[in-house]
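Database export, one record per block. Field names are fixed; values are copied verbatim from the stored entry.
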Amino acid sequence: MGLWKSRVIPATEHWLKLGRITADDADVLANCSITEQIAKVFELEQSAIWFAKDLSKSIVYSVAPPGTSQHLSMLAFDVAEFDDATVRRILAEHGWYQTVISDLPHFTYLGITEADLPVHGLKNVEHGGRRFWVPDI
């Protein structure tokens, strides 16, 4: 929850100062339940009121909404050696793949072979010499 708040609080102050949100909007964001806050943030982002750390894109580029992290459910972990192609190959052999282009150390457990990933709705995206498996939407 701390990472989420570290994005929401400064962004709220920024957009309030610029007049893009009202004091009432800021008050709601500060005092509502986390479920309501998540919904409100996504609603504001539909109007290009961004909550990522750099305020130029969606908050989900820098943090998962509270309760939704794959890390918490032990389906993902960050790998310090993510630049090492051998490490990436070994992880893939055991069902772990890079799935978030904006988070290079992040590996998600998908538990199937690379050949089976497209059958399960994923597509391969090449970026920076790496293979990422993302939803084919």
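Remark 1: Strands lie at 76-78, 96-98, 106-109, 122-127, 130-135.
Remark 2: Residues 2-17 form the longest helix (16 residues).
End of record.
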